[in-house]
Predict the 3D structure of the following.
Amino acid sequence: MLVPSSTLTVVRTATELRRAVDSARALGQRVGFVPTMGALHAGHATLIQAAAADLDAVVVSIFVNPTQFNDASDLKNYPRTEALDFEIARQAGATIAFAPSCDEIYPDGFATTVRPGAIAELLEGEHRPGHFDGMATVVARLLGLVRADVAYFGRKDAQQLAIVEQITRDLAIPTEIRGVDTVREDDGLAMSSRNRRLDRAGRRRALAISRGLFAAQRLADGGERSARTLEAAVLGELAVQHLPVDYVSLVDASTFRPVDALDRPCVLAVACHVGDVRLIDNVRLEPALVVA
Ligand code: PAF
């Protein structure tokens, strides 16, 4: 059940955030955290609701992190809807919104970069150089500032989630990471802040992504194991709509290395362009059970 918080405390500095989190803890509350870059949609609301269902206080951060954009126009065009974000966060059950300035996150003298290693060189890492260093650095800093018990990340960004799990493990960050399933529109399109930049025709063409992934999922459920065949199911749908492809790849679900066969838990991941909007999506595939 959706329980809107009666008040959302908006804080802008690390000091104010610390005070708000300390007040929650003084009341014996456990703290959840949903990091976002704003432009909140139903997918974010689902993350916030999951946090509010599990914990007493929920912090939502709203910060468009410049260091994870490798393309200046993507950063410039990233939607910014702060007032609406606060309302969506409150209605979904958030109690604290942390909306810092860039200087608050990267104060004078800030010099550390978190480099997640091999997993960050593949797929998104290959096509968006530096993206995961920027993401991992800001997530490590945000987790340090919020000091939540549990933080929530969407499975639409499956590689990001795997990297966040790795860095919290490696750096002994004492926040549990929970993944939440991708939220889709009724017609299958994965929710994304970038969708609002699609025009009507682009929105229709973008459906090829989920159509292809669902077709591959059906093949896998029917026993298909060849990575090439599963990838071809997606590529075929993208080709019908002439969508330029960055990658369609069946990868190991924990290392994100490409595999030849669906012989372990895998992610079938896609990145492609619909006009000037770059979209990603994925499905998790398991080898079908063979009944003797
Ligand atoms: O997924 C996002 O919105 C961002 O990558 C995150 C996790 C908020 C870090 O800036």
